[in-house]
Amino acid sequence: MEVKELIAEEIEKVPEPYLRELLDFIRFLERKAVAQKMDLAIASESSLKKDWLSSEEDAAWKDL
Question: For a tag on the chain, would you pick the N or C end, based on fewer CB atoms within 10 A?
Fold first, then answer.
């Protein structure tokens, strides 16, 4: 059985008052994943900046 199926089965057992809290937690995890991707993108940008901001790179892209 896949993890999503197991989670779906467990959700069926959760009392109604706790479902809002569960939804909040799921949304927290989604925001955390987005923040981690942004952190990685920012780190990549600073390390690749030296290659992007070169005269060779400008020449390679000038006709686009």
Answer: C
